[in-house]
């Protein structure tokens, strides 16, 4: 895909659509079950910017801000927003089902809590 995404003879709109159709679905596989921390969200945003910089052939040594790169590509950040939307859709499906998946998602188990810091739940990630 590198030859297609970095080809100057193909318009930037076509390259963005190729990125959205062929690469983003592979990147977001199984994202409905991810718990996204702030660190992980930063990595996702960095990945999105890395793709755009590669498509526009902007070297990492260039002193261009992310905002300038987004303006040049005529694009907004959408990867994290798309993942959150998919998670909310999946969560609605799970909540309507109301069985074991519902218990796992909400974290309402009977018994003792384990020691140490509690794990981040899917609901915690969607609340932010």
Automatic annotation (TrEMBL):
Q: What is this protein called?
A: Endonuclease-reverse transcriptase
């Amino acid at each position: 895909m590198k030859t297609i995404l970095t080809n100057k003879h193909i318009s930037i709109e076509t390259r963005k659509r190729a990125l959205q159709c062929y690469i983003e679905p592979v990147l977001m596989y199984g994202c409905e079950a991810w718990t996204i921390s702030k660190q992980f969200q930063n990595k996702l945003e960095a990945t999105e910017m890395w793709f755009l910089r590669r498509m526009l052939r902007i070297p990492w040594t260039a002193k261009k801000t992310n905002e300038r790169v987004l303006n040049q590509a005529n694009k907004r950040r959408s990867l994290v927003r798309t993942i959150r939307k998919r998670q909310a859709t999946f969560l609605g499906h799970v909540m309507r089902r109301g069985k074991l998946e519902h218990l796992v998602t909400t974290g309402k188990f009977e018994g003792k809590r384990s020691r140490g810091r509690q794990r981040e739940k899917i609901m915690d990630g969607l609340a932010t």
